[in-house]
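Quarterly update from the structural biology core.
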Amino acid sequence: MARQQEGDSTMPHPPTLILTGGPVLTMDPAAPEAEALAVGADGSIVAVGTAPDVLALRAPSTEVVDLNGQALLPGFIEAHGHPTLMGLAVGPPALDVRPFTVPGGREVHELIRAAVAANPGAPVAAYGLDLLLQRDLPLPTRELLDRLSPEAPLVVVANSGHAAYGNTAALRVAGITAGTPDPAGARFVRDASGEPTGEARESGAVLALMHVVGGDRTVEPAVGAALDWAFSEHARAGITTATEMAAEPRMVPALRAATGRPDAALRLRAYLISTPELAADPDHRFPGHAPARELFGISGMKLWADGTPWQGSIATSFPFRDNDATLRIGLDHCTHGPMNYHPRQLADLATAFTAQGFPVACHVHGDVTVEAVLAAYAQAAAGDPERLRGLRPRLEHCGAVTADQYRRAAELGATVSLFMDHVRWWGDVLADDLFGPEVAARWMAVRSAWDAGHRVSLHNDGVCSPTDPLSSIATALTRRSHPSGRVHGTTERLTIEEALRAVTANPAWQLHLEDEIGMLRTGMRADLVVLTRDPRTVRAAAFREEVRVAATYLGGRPTWTG
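Predicted structure, tokenized:
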């Protein structure tokens, strides 16, 4: 039978949309598969069940979509995204030099020179250089950037987002001098005499440089156009809900406005950038989780406990290797990377934000840093562990987290979101350049996380890899690296059913929206993605090539069709 809205067996208002003719994979453990789904005028699901039962509800005005054997699933949820940065940094007319777009260093420099020449005197920003994947790219020193742009400010941001490089003009406009203090949890790299080299590391310092070249793209209407583009790219990937994991408070009105438009293609949940000032503000309180029918809401606070392996800025129990690749990214011989905070500072911030009622999401990669994060959450839980558990604090990315650390995180009530495509794009870099094959085999140890009892989610981290949940699924199934095809960590794979939950029901739970999105159940929002194939029937090795997004619906409204 079709499951209708509770208390609405007569269906006084017929559905506006019915989808049938293919498998409906609900992610609902109580009824995992159906044949058809009906959507009401308010954008909610009014029936899920057999095709005859659901089709019996149609009226002359009901649109019926024949799936023609394609699969219907809950809309994907990007658990850790950066739509604002995506729109501003790589959307038109921005200069996208990521290795997925521009594979070689020579082409990167040619694009920057062309951009400088096209607008003499105007600031130029280029996003996405990667010294480990674009192997012929030299370190972007201040002197090199001065040669590329002698007069106008030029800022080049690393693909990781954890470093940026400015020329002399950019430093001058930003007011960064030998006397400029480092932001909390970040730093301006300096030479032996204390002068800034032009390199900025971690969020506060990177943003100081980016603001120099942001110009009017950080205010309406330019930011609105950038967000519209980013939202459409998410819809193209089958995503109906995304997080904004680095929301500056001054950007919140623009985010609210972009999601408030009638044709908005994305639901957004923002995590505010944490600062010591916000932690110390007695009036700073969590506003509460917005219901899913509201397309914008604040979901928590974001902390960066460490940085990225691609800049050598994660704290690990094992050293970075000593070779040309690590020297290229500026590491000393056989170094261990740093944390962004002293463990006590991290614990105090987590405790303060927890007391304010905020769920905390903490960026962490290194296994040494994870120990500090677990200690911070333990301090935040002191005296009221169930309150912390109810907030569902998060560990983000989780590159080198061990099986034991996943177990202890679960015991605290923390949850985890893994950047699975690290293995796809940088698996060989991890094995051959940075740490060795044993570390690569356990990097993003998603099976260990799942077996520890976590409701694991997978993500693409916005611009740091192409926004594509299907790619995350494929990597979780195979752990195959590009372009070599080598497999890193055969024991750390997920099944297709687990991987699908990791981009639907699980991230919905992490966002406290599990009763409204992430499953196809009567009364929940009709956030839908249509896939060209039933993903359960495709071999893992062929998944990436054979499964595509055919259509995306947000609250029953089409936001993308292929």
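Residues 4-10 have pLDDT under 50 and may be disordered.
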